[in-house]
Specification:
Strand order of the largest sheet: 1-4-5-8-7-6
CATH architecture: Beta Barrel
CATH superfamily: Bacteriophage SPP1 head-tail adaptor protein
Distance between the termini: 27 Å
Shape: globular
Strand content: over 45%
Oligomer: single chain
Number of domains: 1
CATH topology: Thrombin, subunit H
């Protein structure tokens, strides 16, 4: 697990919200911020060995990053994280796996796919 000093990226945490009518008989996806809405995380590209450790016993179709953070009860495989570094375009990560080491509710290790 990364140290608190390694969690240098502040992200916005969101889960799917209610469908919003699009005015043409359909709907569009909405997102609601979690409570609390932000967290400090570390984001690192995932190697095959990292993924084997982080998601042992699960099937992963795609993954690009490991994200480590303090425990947040609202984070699930439906959660997305939005990160914007100063002077850069926003990056969005969709969580594909959530691990709560030792079920201790202290830290989370997320496997996430960056949305391009």
């Amino acid at each position: 697990m990364s140290s608190a000093g390694a969690r240098t990226k502040k992200v916005l945490l969101e889960n799917p919200g209610p469908a919003l009518p699009d005015g043409e008989g359909g709907s569009s996806e909405s997102w609601d911020a979690l409570d609390p809405p932000t967290a400090w995380v570390s984001i690192a590209p995932a190697s095959a060995a990292d993924l084997e450790r982080a998601a042992a016993g699960t099937v992963l179709s795609t993954a690009s990053h490991l994200i480590e953070m303090l425990y947040h009860p609202g984070v699930t495989i439906q959660t997305r994280l939005r990160f914007t570094a100063p002077g850069r375009a926003e990056r969005i990560f969709q969580v594909t796996s959530v691990r709560n080491p030792n079920e201790a509710d202290r830290e989370l290790v997320l496997v996430a796919e960056e949305q391009l």
